[in-house]
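Onboarding guide, step 5: your first structure request.
Type a short instruction followed by the sequence, for example:

Predict the 3D structure of this protein.
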Amino acid sequence: MNHKMAYFADSSLFARPVSRAPSRSIFKIPNFQPLVCANGLAHCVECLPQTSTSYPNMTMKRTLQRSAVVPALLGLLLLTACGGKKEEEKKEEPSIPVETAKVVTGPIDAAYRGTATLEAENEATVMAKQGGVIEQVLVEEGDRVKSGQVLARLETDKLRFELARSQADVDRLEQDFTRLKSVYQRNLVSREAYDKTQYDLAASRAAADLAALALKESEIRAPFDGVVSARYIKRGNQILAGAQAFRVTQLDRLRAAIYVPERDIYKLKAEHHVNLSVDAWPDKSFGGVVTLINPVVDASSGTVKVTVSIDAKQSELRPGMFARAEILYDRRDAALLVPRDAVLVEDAAESVYVVAEGRAHRRLIKTGYGDADHFEVVEGLKAGDFVVTTGQSSLKDDAKVETVQPLKPGAPVATAAQPAPKAG
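The system replies with C-alpha cells like these:
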C-alpha cells in the first residue's frame, strides 16, 4: 500500500497543506513529530481509519478543554489577588508608643537669661612700692589677711642708713638755724643767710621723712581684709618698684556683669531679683539683685552692661566661676503651662500633638513666657489636654498612638526570662 504521510498536533486545529496527491491531501503541522501507525509508519490517510476513526475529534476536544482552562486559571488568580488585598486592608493599624503630659495651670516667671563670670567686688593686685631683695614672705595663697597686715619684707639695711644720715643732717641744720636765729635777731647776719639756713633745714627734714617712708614701704602690706588669691614673689628674688607681689580678694562681696541686648533693656530695672546657677553646685540656686544698669549702649556689640550684686552669705560661690543668670522682670500666677519638650517649631509656627481617644492630632498654638521647663500657652490648648512629649518625630496627624509611662530613674530594665535548665 502506498502510504501517504500526514502530520497532526493535538494542541492546534490549524494546519496548512504542503503537497497534494490526485486523490489524497497531506497536511503538515509545523514543529511537530509524525504519529506512528500500527505498521510502523507515520500515519497516513489510508491508515487513519484503521488506527482510530475518532482521532481528529479527540484532538479538537482536548484543544477546547485546554483553551477553557486558561481563562479559569486567570480568574482564580484575580480572585486570589483581590482577596489578599482585602485581607491587607483589614489588617489593624499599628499603634505608635508615645509619652504624654497634662496641660496644667500654674505660675511662670518672665526672665532675661544670660551668662556671666563672677567677680570680686574688691580685688587688688598689691605692688612693691620699693625695689630690693625679698627678705621675708609672710603669707601664702589662701591665707586670710587683715587690712594693713605685712605680707612680705625687703632688705632694709641700706634704707636704715639713709634714714640715719638724713636725720643727722636735720639735727645739724636745726642747731645751725638756732644759733643763726639769735644772731639774726641782733642784726649780725644778713636776711639772705638766715633764709638760706631755714630752707636747708626744711629740705633736710623732708629728706628724712622720705627716708623714713622708704623704710616703711619696704614692708608690703594688705590694702583691705580679704584672702591672698595669688603670690608672685619668692624669697631672695630681686623685685623692682611697681612690680606685682600679691593679689588680695574679698570673697564675701561678689558681683556679675551681664551684657543685655539693647532691645531687651527696657524690661529691666534696678532691684530686680536674679537667680544664678553654677556648674559646681548644679542642684542649687543662688540669689542676687540688679544694682546698676549702664546708661550707655556699647556701639560695637549693641549691648548694655547690667551689674548684679550677689548675697554675701552664699559662701559656696567663688570669683571666676561661670554662672547662668535669670533676671526676673515679670510673673504670671495662673498661666496655662505645657512642657517645653512638647512644643514643635517649624517655619516659625509652634504646634503640639494632642492625644484624644487613642489618636494624635497636630494643633497650632501660640506661646507666651517660658522658663527652663515650661511654656505659657496663650492660644490653642485648654487645661486638661494631653500632649505628646516623647515620640513626636514618628507621628503624623491623626496617627494611632499608645500612651506609655516613662521609665523612672533607677528603675530596673525588664529583660527576657531565661529558660529553665533541663533536668538530668
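Each response can be followed by summary notes, for example: The two ends are 88 Å apart (CA to CA).
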